[in-house]
Amino acid sequence: MTFTIKDVAKLANVSIATVSRIINNQTGYSEKTKKKVLEAIEELGYEPNAVARGLINKRTHTIGVLFPKLSSTLVTDLLSGIEKATHDAGSSVIVCHTESNGEKTMKYLQLLNEKRIDGIIFTSAPLLEEYYQYIKKMNVPMVLLSTETYAHPVPYVKVNDRHAAYTATQFLINKGHEKIGMISGNKDDIISGKPRIDGYISALQDHNLPIDEKKIIYNRGFSFYDGMDSLKTLLKQAPDLTAVFAASDELAIGAISSAYQLGIKVPDELSIIGYDNLSIAEMSVPPLTTVAQPLTEMGEMAANMLFEMLNSDKLIESRIMPHKIVERKSVRDKEV
Amino acid sequence: MTFTIKDVAKLANVSIATVSRIINNQTGYSEKTKKKVLEAIEELGYEPNAVARGLINKRTHTIGVLFPKLSSTLVTDLLSGIEKATHDAGSSVIVCHTESNGEKTMKYLQLLNEKRIDGIIFTSAPLLEEYYQYIKKMNVPMVLLSTETYAHPVPYVKVNDRHAAYTATQFLINKGHEKIGMISGNKDDIISGKPRIDGYISALQDHNLPIDEKKIIYNRGFSFYDGMDSLKTLLKQAPDLTAVFAASDELAIGAISSAYQLGIKVPDELSIIGYDNLSIAEMSVPPLTTVAQPLTEMGEMAANMLFEMLNSDKLIESRIMPHKIVERKSVRDKEV
DNA sequence: TTGTATGCGTTATCAG
DNA sequence: CTGATAACGCATACAA
After folding, report:
1. What is the pTM of this model?
2. Shortest Cα distance from B108 to chain A (angstroms)?
3. All domains in chain A, ordered by first residue
4. A10, A84, B64, B321: which is deepest, by most CB within 10 A?
């Protein structure tokens, strides 16, 4: 049995209006009736119906989060932060797994629209024009997480990929390395592919080190297996490398596995630095030195920004989150 | 601007009742009016309000999923399966991160109740009496995932932990190992702690191998760091071990890291088998042999069971999912 | 085949 | 301080 405000009103001998006032702690009732009503609520175990509330308030206290993939700790860390901030703000999160599929994404957006969610966090994927237009029509705030768009004024939170890649490469250079390769993601990926390559190249240039196409491997994605394959071909093309910057931790760990198979000692013969600082980074052998994104904080930040927009509906600034090197054991000084 | 059924009705020159009938493709209207209405819907870009529907139909097409932690690929794999099946069934999932905290869990349950979700999947944690009672009062179906309860008739989906642990241990035995240690989780954990220990012991007994308390390490949890520490003390207590069964992949990989630090070669000097088959298992060096749980399928199964209960509301049977050994490189024959 | 009217559980606007 | 009552957007019983 589930009770309504009516049942409470009847039991407390007041009108539903009064009950409503008390539930929403507004003004306009005596302490005495308040007590009476509260007791009735307690006795019945009444809990308000958020669906009815949503209908009238036009606020469902639910947000939608779109992920291109779910099975990666990168995503979970983001989700974890989003969920925390969202729950702290008294809302819930609906997860949507788009698989980077346009049709699926549109279906999800439609679903979210029908559910009248309050806002959207769009993560780790390019915001296609089609998506943007649809969300604009939905008329709910949106923030981009771990991605950004140049085409429209949508606030985002991410690290500066170019800068972070620069930092990683520079770290290697500062350790005395000069022959530094890169295992990159997809260079056609404007968000996280190209910028990291650019950062790597910039760092090399700024330190008067030569750029050599043979020292860069381009992959489709950022996966472990890409990393395994990449190291092999990389070393074939440029056998004298002493260090490698991998554009993701998975790529880096794939490279480490490959190195192990090839009998190359990390970091003694080859230094490897990753990107992300996922939980797997500390679990690898040797533990992976990497440039960390504050993923959980990023998730929290994105959610908080969304709620800010929801409550004030003014424009909001994007956030470039700080990255930092987490030094573990996969990089060492180049002996001189 | 967001339109309602009223706007559609007006534009199509029919009553809202007719529009409603057409949207829900019921009978009782001419092809001609149907066309008219559909055109109006198209023109306005009308999309039904699921909140209003939820209020009247008493079905929100939303389910709640409770996780004790979010940041682990174990959880993501489960979630991934749940999300898929749920979306295929036309519903959405709200994720709740309880942190194994009783108070938080109750808060989440209350939230889910207020939101009038259709059902609950409760994962990877003991179902406390308090939770059960509350959910029972909520009067929505629930299924347990990767956990179970003896106290109440709640359907669950999980592997048989005891059996799976037995299989893992037996695998080691069949490879010729006789001195086999175990790095276990929490022995007070009735769901995944104790049963795996029991399975290990059973396998030893059935093969006439001695049980030795010194060969078992008990941990608080199943984490990487627990695994690192455990291997060290384990080898101190029982230096002649040739193989170890770890009760989770994280424990196993922690053990591998430890072995590496100690200069012990895996699998040449020590074989290690894990439990779960997370994505990290294939990424370790050497790749981890482990007993696999079909996590994604388990998630799908749980969701499907929930929808079955929702649609027929008869009792449903629990499922013991099959486990299997995934042989990689961390276990080898004991040389004779 | 179609339309009117009522209710789902709230909130909010009125009077009183 | 309190209570009717009209929305919110939709589904449906009942009339027509």
Report:
1. 0.95
2. 9
3. 5-48 (1.10.260.40), 62-159+295-322 (3.40.50.2300), 161-293 (3.40.50.2300)
4. B64
